[in-house]
Amino acid sequence: MGKTKLLKIVLVSFVSLAFVFTFSFVGCAQVEEVIEEPIEDIIEDPIEDIIEDPEEEPVPDEPDVEPMEVPEEITIGFSVWTMEFTFFQRVERGVRDAAEDYGFEYIMMDQQSDATKMVEDINTLVGMGVDAISITPVDPGAIGPAVQNARDAGIPVVCADIGFSGPVNALIISDNYLGGQLAAEYMHELLADAPDHSWEFGLGNLSPEWTYARQRGEGFRDKAEELGYEIASELIVDPPDAEGGFDTMQQIMSAAPDIVGAFFCSGREAVGAARAVEAAGEDILVVGYNGDPEELLAIQDGILAATILQLPYEIGYQSVEILYEILVEGAEYEQEEIGAPVELVTPENLDDIAAMIEETTGISAFE
Amino acid sequence: MVELQARSLRVKIAQQWGSLGLPFLLVAVVILFSFLSPVFRTQFNFLSILRFASFIAISAVGMAFCIMAGEFDISVGSMMALVGVLGASFVPVIGGFAAVLTTIAISSFLGFVNGIFITKLKIPAFITTLGMMFVFRSLAYIYTDNVSVYIDNDFWLYMGNGRVLGIHFPIILMVLCFVGGYLMLRKTPFGRYVVAVGTNAKAAELSGIHVDRIKIAVFVMVGFFVGISSVVISANMGVANPGLLGQGYEFQVITAVVLGGTLLGGGNGSLGGALLAALILGSLRNGMNLMQVSSYWQQVVTGSVLIFAVAINRLRYTLMGQEA
Questions:
Q1: Overall average pLDDT of the A305-329 stretch
Q2: Is B145 in Cβ contact with A208 (below 8 Å)?
Q3: A:B CB pairs within 8 Å
Q4: Pick from A122, A238, A252, A312: nearest CA to B48
Q5: Which of A18-27, A106-115, B208-217 bottoms out in mean pLDDT, i.e. has the lowest?
Q6: What is chain A's alpha carbon radius of gyration, rounded to the nearest angstrom?
Q7: Domains of chain A (ranges plus CATH)?
Q8: Cα maximum dimension of chain A
Q9: Which of B15, B29, B35 to mutate to test the interface with A (most CBs of A within 10 A)?
Q10: Helix (H, G, I), strand (E, B) or coil at A343
């Protein structure tokens, strides 16, 4: 008897499912023309909600867009590594704001840190017939064939940060080498007050696959050696997170007990390293790289000496500027690397920097 | 008499889910998105869906055999990374064709190792393959020093990007793998043995089947198909990345097999179901992407579809009077 009931339930649910689907087809068929409208709503609405004050949008350094040139139907596709981290949220915000400022339609896809999905998304954007693509790739080595597809279809491609492979038009990436140099210079400045300090530094580097990000370490090393320091211990931070930074710093301290400062090439790792210094009760300057909220909080708390701030919002914004130049102004770009500015954040300028970040991105620098 | 008729009707309906339920779901998803998005119904997009579904579906053939035999393999993602970087690094030395064959041979061998551990050392499949998941991934990092291996060989790249009469080569490979798998499952004694072992290993043993051999064989099959997928996916990206290749892959493959109607406990299963499931998952993902559905909601939908399908499946086996 129980089974007869089950059978009925199955039959009923099948029939109702069939109805639901049928109605959704019929419904859609009738409003097929207008269907674009609600889709737009889905895209726009939640985004508008997040933005705290969409009115005043300071356009960084290039406000003079000729309005007559802007063709309505240009669509920009953006494929982002993941929306889990603040850094990428800011890149995305920059791309989106720029698209809006130039009057472009905007489509975003989230790779969810999955290289296969990244390739799939780029192909989907090509299939959708977007006019230009900006990518922040989870695996820059793996975009080659997909970029080739896009270029074959006449779609220009720009990478916003990380790196690239294949025939992209341009890569916009922080001036990592300069950032490393700034870190060494700042540490040297701070140490000037203590004349008989040791001349040894530690370096928490990134694994070899991060070709571009490793330039931070090179810049630091070159500048430090130029100023008369020695890199007494260099280790790759593994795993690349705060805990890894903590462990690595402990190892650096035991390998080179006399160091007076350490540079870590990434944000959370640097905070972990600074905590290891604090836990050991040592007096070692730690400087990080990125400008993540964790780092800024650590600078505020006096744990981290400084960090090199990347400007992800500007990187995202700039990627659309380049695409605008290519699409509208007919500019030629082929595999060009364009350096984006970096800034030194110290306890002295922390408040100004935080205010600047909040003003451009609409997101608090500490969240 | 009435009771008997009701029962036979029940069984009929229940049996039909396997052959009708999933196609119905696939058609529903495709029609729904075709109405919602003009891009979805383009030929380019359909081919794109098929191509990315094939990445999951090819490995799902091996996994379906494995799960039907009552076993399980969660090391496939890491295995894919390890054999991908190994094979890709051989290309300059032995050429593309030999490297592809070597890749498939190595992954079959790794599957064999898994099978030996599970049957001869009696370590449960979950533990063995969990351990191997870490071992394979780490070996991939160690071998490459965490530097991606770029692939610059026409034959290898053809495996992921080539076209035959406008159809991407991975799609053709997927069809071949399924036809081969189907014939093996339904037309050979081996197929019957796999189902017998999965249904009741003791009984199979008593009826003279070498249970261990069958189990080792299904793990070799998992490795074989993962090897093919590894070549196809790395070719599609032009690079074998030790950290990112096959990340989260095991769950995508298992999801397709389970959604396809194969019971996790072994025994009954369906290869066609797994293929349809891979297509459903691919269409859902593609359609939701086109509709700009947030990636978090996409995962909610995928998870719900899986649970819904397994619930129906359970009901179906209850109706057929079998344990699910």
A1: 93
A2: yes
A3: 126
A4: A122
A5: A18-27
A6: 25
A7: 69-168+312-338 (3.40.50.2300), 176-310 (3.40.50.2300)
A8: 92
A9: B35
A10: strand
Distance CA B143, CA A13 (A): 53
pLDDT tens digits for range B227-272:
999 999 999 888 898 888 888 899 889 989 988 888 877 777 888 8
Partner-chain contact B295 A139, CB within 8 Å: no
What is the C-alpha to C-alpha distance for residues A311 and A292, in angstroms, rounded to an integer?
Answer: 10
pLDDT of A71: 56
Contacts of B319 in chain A (CB under 8 A): 3, 6-7, 10
Unique residue bearing structure tokens 């730690």:
A286
Q: How far is CA B41 from the centre of its chain?
A: 26
Residue with tokens 């998304």: A121
Does the CB of B6 have a partner CB in chain A at under 8 Å? yes
DSSP at A228? T
Which residues of B fall within a CB distance of 8 Å from A46? 294
Q: Where do the domains of chain B lie, and which CATH numbers do they carry?
A: 19-317 (1.10.3470)
Give contacts of B 72-111 with A, CB under 8 A. Answer: none
Q: In 3D, which of A77, A88, A95, A140 has the Cα closest to residue A112?
A: A88
Contact A116, B52 (CB under 8 A): yes
Residue A262 pairs in a beta bridge with A202, A286
Determine the 3-state secondary structure of B87 from DSSP.
helix
Q: Using CB atoms and an 8 Å cut-off, which of residues 262-291 of chain B contact chain A?
A: 285-286, 289-291
Rg (CA), chain B: 20
Q: Where are the alpha helices (DSSP H) in A281-346?
A: 293-300, 312-327
A 115-174: CB under 8 A from B: 115-116, 119-121, 123-124, 127-129, 138-139, 141-146, 165-166
Q: Does A358 touch chain B (CB under 8 A)?
A: no
Residue A45's pLDDT band (boundaries 50, 70, 90)? very low
Residue A159 · residue A172 · CB < 8 Å? yes
Distance of alpha carbon A111 from alpha carbon B298, whole angstroms:
12
Give the residue-averaged pLDDT of A313-339: 93
| Contact by Cβ (8 Å): A312, A145 | no
ipTM score assigned to the predicted complex: 0.78
